[in-house]
Amino acid sequence: MRLHEYQAKEVFARYGIPVQRGAVVDRAEDVPPVELRYPVVLKAQVLVGGRGKAGGIQLAHTPEEAQEKASRILGSEIRGERVRRLLVVEAAEIEREYYLAFVVDRAARCLTLVASAEGGVDIEEVARRSPERIVKLPVDPALGFHPFHARGVARRLGLAGPLLGQFAELSCALYRLACERDAELAEINPLALCQGRWLAVDAKLVVDDNARPRQLDLPADEETTELERLAREYDLSYVELDGDIAIIGNGAGLVMSTLDMVAHFGGRPANFLDIGGGASTEAMRRALDIVLRKPGVQALLINIFGGITRCDDVARAITSSPPPVPTSIRLTGTNEEEGRRILEAAGVSAFTDPEEAARRAVTLARGG
Amino acid sequence: MAILVSEHTRVLVQGITGYQGEFHTARMLEFGTKVVAGVTPGKGGARVHGVPVFDTVEEAVEATGANASCVFVPARFAKDAALEAIAAGLDPVVVITEHIPVHDAIAVVDFARRRGVHVIGPNCPGITAPERCKIGIMPSHLFRRGPVGLLSRSGTLTYEIVAGLTRAGIGQSTAVGMGGDPVIGMSFVELLSLFQEDGETEAIVLVGEIGGAAEEEAARYIREHVRKPVVAYVAGLTAPPGKRMGHAGAVISGTEGTAQAKVEALQAAGVQVADLPTRVPELVARALGR
User: Fold this and answer.
1) ipTM of the complex
2) A-B interface: how many C-beta pairs under 8 angstroms?
């Protein structure tokens, strides 16, 4: 789960990482006229990338200008995401911009520090253009990350004098934060040098969803759609897509391959929905409820390979709440015969072969 | 020979008194796996399907000679359980549990590496060597012994492909479900090297999905070191960036982790890539000269 910048900065500040003074507002008239030293920067709190280029970050020299600009940004859309809040901060006089992050490194199977003296820009771009400008240090999980590691990194970034020690302190704090808050990514970009001091001008914190049970004080997840939230409550894995063929299957890989099959035969999947292993009749009923709520669905494809999931449970869910759209079903595996018998008694047929079922769903969506 | 397990593997089930642990212990016993002990702290002295339950792994190993573990312990306690198994020297340690925090997985995988223990998972269906040993939750009836080694990041997709192979008369030497999380124990590369050395395995099936760069790493390794034919399938060609597709590890981040890039890397390494999972068996048959 990705936090908004202002939420991430609250966490960063608790770890002693310096951030600008500021306020969060959701109405233009709430932009504080006096508490802040002007000029200020207005920053749209959205989770999509590239908000600066899309006009989501603006400088204002007076409270009047700030309110006027705030009223324009609030409620507008940035790359499809509505702006509901603004972070208003005192503008900083930036001398130089660096990049610093700790990220879960899948290949190295540890946290890895990534730093660069080229900050304030897309780090993937820097990595492509001039990989020698990036410092990477995989952190030994048993040893941890210590000030001496950080000083080594600082040297490679060309830092010296008091800045070196301050950088070490700051990066150790960021490491502690990443570990304690179960971060997949804790990033400061830019990490700015302002009058000889470090300042986290932007902050990005992505927390591992699997760690939510032990990160109880985190804010609610705003990245998901309403149906995605409902699915999570039901313990189903659902992702909304933009096509018209609703899809239900069991197992992440199987459902992904079902989407691919539909696309292969010229159809457009409306969603990804994995009912998981050992799903019950109830889980299947809820799955049907969710995928069919999405407007514009023309057909439904159900792909079940019964392992722990039992075909008769699935069949019972389908017959007890018959889908209101044309449906193609693939059913095979555990208790397959019983499942087919239940479906046939209700006048429903099912394929054994997933390719045939996918082809049929595409035809159904076209009105065939 | 199978890889990682054999008829001599003596399995300890951690979390044996839980619903999943108990259910799958019965399935493993039916398969013929030697499940010799279970561990649930506080429930020592009980029996589950005739299998004695102990409070600690150490005690279970002393009493029964268990040499491998299958972890069904809930996510909150799974790190502790896996570390306990690794500390006791059990090998492999197969972690079935889903939703383990990634920082916990890092600690487990790191400790296993230091101890030279093979960890499979977390969030995986386990390992099956037909006629010899099954650790985990794969549906037994799909398998048939034969020449294909299979390694996969996905559970049900593995079953789909194994069923297809068996239907086509092609059996399996060992099938390994590696797990769908971003940080997992055994990688494609480690498993490929075991399959390359394994005398029973004549062809390899690799099942990948979006997220990370493990398939690309596998492709480099195959080009350099694998002399046996490899057939692959990669799920998620239509997956949008930034969305987790069911598995915690199945997510395209920025430009990294697309199915297209994985397919291209594998093809460039001489791997036959099936465009649909249902087409894997015919490619394998051809690779085996059938």
Assistant:
1) 0.92
2) 167
